[in-house]
């Protein structure tokens, strides 16, 4: 079996998924491109197995903030699966969901919503209303509404997703932390700080237990908890959380990655609240350099 055999591509694809979960996109990208090349040559450019590495490459581009390239790759993957498997096949929901995410990250909510809803409809039709992938679609829709300040629509969707994950996967599964963290953010934005803190602490505990102290999702929970404490005026507790979250992200994605910007913005706002303007300015300079470098 040579290095360009389709079975080699299958093994490489497993590595791509592993690196992707860990945020190690520099390692994942060349492997994903190699998988794509092998499959295009062995199976043809329109084969459904070609869509998987396209989807993986799009995820990497989206993570880097390269949204135009991600959109192109997602649309090609979507087209291949629709043509090969039919528009209602569950595989179609993955590029649909990811394309919607690509639009959401750019604030293009009108474009994102129908894609999320189409993915949800296909999944409910295929697997019923209590499937974990249905819960993922519900959580994604909840995020979309929360980011637009539509809390009355977002909160029931988070709660429905939470119920499904808990029932199907168990209360300590890391997927449970996604709607918990989203609910915590929604309650924080509504001023329901005690409820927000309780949920954020639970999400953090799940992620630390299931994923470890050095995972990107753990860093997300630390950032959520820091936001809650900041709004409560508990500044001495905020900075250690932000420092820890930043160190996790820097260790995993590097010190110049666009994924750092949201956390750096948060830290900058805290420094200004504490009248530490010189440090805040240094963070501003760093964020500008990251943004310019990602163009």
Secondary-structure element string: HHHHHHHHHHHHHH
Strand content: under 5%
Alpha plus pi helix count: 14
Low-confidence stretches: none
SS-based class: mainly alpha
Radius of gyration based on Cα positions: 20 Å
The major sheet is characterized as: none
How far apart are the first and last residues' alpha carbons, in Å?
41 Å
Number of strands: 0
Q: What keywords describe this structure?
A:
0% strand, 295 residues, mainly alpha, 14 helices
Describe this structure in words.
The structure is a single chain. The chain is mainly alpha-helical. The chain has a domain at 254-295. It is built from 14 helices and no strands. The chain has helices at residues 6-21, 25-43, 48-63, 67-85, 93-105, 109-127, 132-147, 151-169, 177-189, 193-211, 216-231, 235-253, 261-273, 277-293. Helix 13 (261-273) packs antiparallel against helix 14.
Describe the SSE topology.
Layout: H1 6-21, H2 25-43, H3 48-63, H4 67-85, H5 93-105, H6 109-127, H7 132-147, H8 151-169, H9 177-189, H10 193-211, H11 216-231, H12 235-253, H13 261-273, H14 277-293
């Amino acid at each position: 079996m040579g290095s360009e055999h389709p079975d080699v591509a299958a093994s490489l694809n497993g590595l791509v998924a592993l690196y992707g979960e860990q945020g190690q996109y520099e390692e994942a990208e060349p492997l994903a491109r190699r998988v794509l090349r092998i499959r295009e040559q062995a199976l043809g450019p329109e084969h459904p197995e070609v869509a998987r590495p396209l989807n993986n490459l799009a995820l990497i581009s989206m993570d880097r903030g390269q949204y135009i390239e991600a959109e192109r790759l997602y649309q090609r993957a979507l087209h291949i699966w629709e043509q090969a498997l039919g528009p209602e096949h569950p595989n179609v929901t993955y590029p649909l969901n990811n394309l919607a995410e690509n639009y959401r990250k750019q604030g293009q909510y009108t474009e994102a919503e129908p894609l999320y809803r189409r993915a949800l409809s296909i999944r409910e039709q295929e697997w019923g209303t209590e499937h974990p992938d249905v819960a993922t679609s519900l959580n994604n829709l909840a995020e979309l509404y929360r980011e637009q300040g539509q809390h009355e629509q977002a909160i029931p969707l988070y709660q429905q997703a939470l119920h499904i994950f808990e029932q199907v996967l168990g209360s300590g599964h890391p997927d449970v932390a996604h709607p918990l963290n989203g609910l915590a953010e929604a309650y924080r934005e509504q001023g329901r700080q005690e409820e927000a803190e309780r949920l954020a602490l639970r999400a953090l505990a799940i992620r630390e237990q299931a994923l470890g102290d050095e995972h990107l999702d753990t860093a997300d929970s630390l950032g959520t908890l820091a936001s809650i404490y900041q709004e409560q005026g508990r500044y001495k507790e905020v900075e250690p959380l932000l420092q820890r979250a930043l160190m996790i992200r820097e260790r995993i994605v590097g010190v110049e990655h666009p994924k750092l910007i949201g956390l750096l913005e948060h830290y900058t706002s805290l420094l200004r609240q504490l009248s530490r303007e010189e440090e805040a300015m240094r963070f501003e300079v760093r964020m500008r350099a990251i943004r310019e470098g990602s163009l």
